[in-house]
Amino acid sequence: MQTIFCRLSVISHMLIHPYFIFDGPDCPQVRRGPDPILSATLSLLVQCFQELLTAFGFGWHVALCEAEAELAYFQSCGLIDTVVMLYNDALLFGAHCVIHSIPQSNECEDIEVYTSDAIENLASLEWGDLLLVMLMSSADNDVGALPNIACQLTHYGFGRTLFQAAITLQFVEFMEFIAKWHDDVCEVLRTDPHLFLGCRHHELACVIKEECIEFPDPAILAMYLLPLTSWLHGGHPPVSIVTSHQPDLMSLATFCLEHLCWPPDMVHSRLMDAWAGTAMRCKD
Questions:
Q1: Residue 99 to residue 82: CA distance in whole angstroms
Q2: What 3-state DSSP class applies to 112?
Q3: CA distances (Å), 94 to each of 39, 69, 138, 224, 234, in order?
Q4: Which candidate, 53, 73, 62, places its Cα nearest to that of 23?
Q5: Parallel, antiparallel, or unpaired: how do β-strands 97-101 and 111-115 relate?
Q6: pLDDT tens, 226-277?
Q7: Strand partners, 58
Q8: What angle in degrees, to the nearest 10, is found between the helix axes of 218-225 and 127-137?
Q9: Backbone CA torsion sign across 29, 231, 121, 188
Q10: Is residue 86 within 8 Å of 71, Cβ to Cβ?
């Protein structure tokens, strides 16, 4: 939590209006993990995080389901300019620009920028290709394929055929298609008939064939194809404009004393940094 406080303090100095969105109650449990103790700890951490955001004057809300989907819709509606997150899932939900920090770097300037235009025009990856890469390389399933293997596999067209089948076939037809698609993916991993993969991946093919019978998981696939957001069924976004306000120094001081257990002299020192954010947003 101390790290979060320091990061938010740095953000408060910037000429931006940050907005934070949290995963909602319908977010797939696979992302949260089965450990109830860990879930309770994360829940408490999120509550403290939200309290701290309010004290810093930053807007936030809890999504209905995936925060990435909500962020993508915020961007498509012009409420935000870019999405900042650890992963690139938001691109699959329609975001056109995603930024995330370079791992093991403490500098705000060390970032990687991903845009939908660059992915389509430079990497020659269509939406279906991205879907396949995400399904095979994300933590949402047990396949655990390296991203580069998933990217190479797109040359065989599996992502595009999966996407087309998902949006055009009825449920029974789709389940018949997916059974053959599953077998075809395993066969290509074992044989690499057109040498797109560079080598054969027998072990990965066995994992998918024997241990991941439901790959791709229909629930995960539906999450990407039919995302649950605030806009669903004619709903309205939680905010009409994204803005921020001056930090509440009294609330920040109380938070530091109660949650971070900092002595008064340290609280005073850290709040001096927050003064800059207060001056930066004096006209908000």
A1: 7
A2: strand
A3: 29, 8, 18, 10, 18
A4: 62
A5: antiparallel
A6: 888 887 767 777 888 999 989 999 999 999 999 999 999 999 888 887 887 7
A7: 244
A8: 140
A9: positive
A10: no
